[in-house]
Amino acid sequence: MTRIVEAALAAVLAVGVSPAWSQTAQEISYVANGVNAKLTCSGVFVSGRTPDAAAMDAATLLGPLGVGIEHALDPEAQSASAHGGGVTRTAFYRPGLGCTLSADGAPPALQSDPRSPGEAAPAWSDAGPGRDVDADAIRAALDAAFPAGADIDTRAFVVVHDGRIVAERYAPGFEPDTPLLGWSMAKSVTATLIGLLIDDGRLSLSDPIAMPGWNEDNPRRAITLEQLLQMSSGLTFTEDYSGTDDASLMLFTRPDMAAYAASKPLEHALGEVWSYSSGTTLMLSRLLIQTLGSPEAVQAYARERLFIPAGMPGAVMEQDMAGTPVGSSYIYATAREWARFGLLYLNGGEIDGRRILSAAWTGYARRPAPAARQANYGAQFWLNGFRDTDRTTRVAPDLPTDTFFASGHSGQIVLIIPSLDVVVVRLGWTTGNARYSMNTVVPPVLEALGLLPAVPTTP
């Protein structure tokens, strides 16, 4: 999404000074105001930030495209609106469900809070790095994880080793109990819910996926669940966040995101070409509803089978106007809760001595997709390209080859390193041309803890 500004401005400038908006300019303005309304709403009502601070996140993301957009908060309606370029967009909050961006200004359907009274996150025991670790070295490594500068705004950083938090820091204004947006880390959570349904015998990797609108003769009906999980469905989907690409339009203009993704034509043979697509994950989200029966049933299943037993009671899975979880992009959780999600996979599906996921599923999730030629993607998880023995194409060449991770826009990371018994979580806001490199930031922390160097292993 960081390139939305450059491409969008180019598109706007291309229409000249005609007094009438072109369709492209209207779409961009619709997207830009949608970004502002959605992020402001969730920032205030989910993360507990001030309206100005939440709106600033959207403004930073949009850059020059956000100039002139005004935001307004309605505490009574629990909504946030953005207005600019003759366009007004509104997002509405519902307790336990977060914020939903409206396509037409009307609020989403009423839906009960999926949370139950008394839910609380488990306490972390024996927090701290231990007596034999150089505290000054850890402090210096964490300083590097929070670099100065507006373009890299790290907000939370947590390192877990041997089941304990051994390093942790938050930026001013953020706390251990602040829910933060994971962006595309949500894809890994959505895949986990699919994995639970597979463990339950309700789905199979070989199942053909029938989305609404696909008739019996539609060749897309041959797409399997495995091909969706491995981003090799063959469906066309552009994701460059130019403001008029499929991902931008789906997330910020369409009331039924899964239907939009399912409307895309086949571009490649099934299973032959790997192509990253948030639309693919939205179809997985729709499959959750088709399997469980309703949006309410999906929310209940997520809490009963994943969030509560994994120790993530504060997790919020936001929905679109059709009630489909936006499983590609919109899950909020605290840094410690994201760390618990990482621990679940680090321990092969167990946490606190309780098995939640099968070892078969957690192993499958980190198995390279056949179409991912560099072995850097599994089932909605990123891998460290362990086939690359000379390290030229690995994502993090200075980390062990068994490293795998959930990754989201702006540098959100849940990094899992089984050979070191480590989970690293970074949450923040990385914009402009900046890049947050885990290969730069994570090794010094691990070295300070005495965990590197280590002998790389393969799954």
How would you sum up this structure in a few lines?
33% of the residues lie in helices and 16% in strands. By secondary structure, the chain is an alpha+beta fold.
Characterise the protein shown here.
The structure is a single chain. The chain is an alpha+beta fold and about 450 residues long. It folds into three domains: about 5-100, no CATH class; about 120-180 and about 335-459, 3-Layer(aba) Sandwich (Beta-lactamase), CATH 3.40.710.10; about 180-325, Beta-lactamase (3-Layer(aba) Sandwich), CATH 3.40.710.10. Helices cover about 35% and strands about 15% of the residues. The protein has a six-stranded antiparallel beta sheet, with helices on both faces. Helix 2 (about 25-45) runs antiparallel to helix 3 and helix 4 runs antiparallel to helix 13. The longest helix is centred in the first third of the chain and has 23 residues, at about 25-45. The protein is globular and about 60 Å long.
